[in-house]
Fold each of these.
Amino acid sequence: MRKNILMVAALIVVIAGGIAVFFAFGKKTPEAPLIAQQPNVSARGKKITIYFIPKNLGNVYFEALSTGFYDAISELGDENFKYVYSGPQVAEADNQIEFVKKAIQDKADALFISANSNTALNSVFDEARAAGVRVYIINQDIPGSEAHRDAAIMPVNFDTIGRAQMELMGEQMGYEGSFAILSATVDAPDQNTWVGLMKKELEDNPKYAKMELVEVVYGDDQLEKSAAEAKALLSKYPDLKGILSPTTVGIAAACQVVRESGMSGKIKVTGLGLPSQMAEFILDGTCEGFQLWNPPYEGYISVYMVWAEKKEGFTPVPGAKFTTRKLGEYTIQPNGQILTLENPMLYDKSNIGKYSVLF
Ligand code: RAM
């Protein structure tokens, strides 16, 4: 009996000791620093807030451009940025106004926008700039309204596009016959600049004397409307030898229509395309070659420019320079533009595999 009592007493002591030890450590643990505190850069100041408003959502071209923003942001530290990619469903300037206003309300540091008009956004741009938001036009400029933006990030020097695109169309058509242009929206600042330059090249260069531009039609950067316009061209002009589409949406739609009509190789389709969307048409011969630049580079450069302003005293005035980690130094040109590249690149069977996985 006495032995039993002693055993129970010993057990109580062991259990009580265990509970005491448990509470002792249990109490201590939350107070003990687990790891040294990491310095939190964003806690020292506001995050750098960047908005990118594309012409419209649903166009993978702009999603490709947006990946460049993410790339630079992750190099410079995600915790230092707030990045917002949002815009209208249809490519109209009026529909972009509310997104500019959101950037103002959000006290954005910089707003990048592919404007759907050369003039319609001027007053909201003025409002944004008066509120301290930098306004950058991206992927194009707003000719005639340059005073309403801080600078423009250009994919290439636009002066090169008219000549380069006409030469591509001419070469593929054997410098002979009729062709049509399938553009984006009637007001598109970029396409209107290029189409103007193409027309001038067609008129001025004797090389193209036997080529005739029959019509310029507009697919609004919507796939279905672009395809309908391409179909209409085929039935309206039975002798058509070429479609030149300086929009990634239009060129892919035109290729689809030409292929479905059994006209691959007979009607030449070229213009500006996105390699990932165009690979199938290059491989099956519907398109011999098209041009573009590197859309992600534009977003990448943009982030570094804002970073330079926030951290290194850069201001976006002509002559000002900033440096990027992967692409080197950029300088704002006298006209307020920053050229990502000088000339467009040619994409064809020789390199489509390499680029179609990138953008
Ligand atoms: C479309 C858009 C864009 C243009 C490209 C080539 O995706 O219209 O603005 O740069 O095509």
Note: The pocket of alpha-L-rhamnopyranose is lined by residues 55, 59, 61, 114, 139, 184, 190, 221, 247-249, 272 (CB under 6 Å).
Amino acid sequence: MDYDCLFCKIIKGDIPSSKVYEDDYVYAFKDINPEAPCHVLVIPKKHIASMDDITPENSEYVSHIFEMIPIIARKGGAENGYRVISNCGKDGGQSVFHLHFHVIGGTELPLHVFPNK
Ligand code: 5GP
Ligand code: ZN
């Protein structure tokens, strides 16, 4: 628990959220500013700041997240597929520094967008 972290406060229930799924390792909730009909944020219940901070000691949280994403995506309304995104660091566009995976779907998504292409 990081007392200054928005997503740690959401896990604790100090800030309300719309829960999609929860177990001992993972919390999943609807993004406050959805970019598709299904836009769920999936986070570890342990404070890990970003993709850069995954280690052998905490990676069980991450592997469990990936085991649960197919179930979470369907619970969140993605029936026919979905996309998983994790923004990392300044250039990656990360705005909340508690590791999270965006699970986006519920509609046919545009093809991948890369800069300069
Ligand atoms: P990032 O930009 O770090 O990849 O993603 C952060 C995400 O968190 C954004 O999509 C943003 O809409 C979402 N977000 C920020 N604050 C809150 C909040 O208080 N509640 C919820 N449910 N989502 C939030
Ligand atoms: Zn945190």
Note: The pocket of guanosine-5'-monophosphate (ligand 1) is lined by residues 6, 15, 17, 29-33, 41, 87, 93-96 (CB under 6 Å).
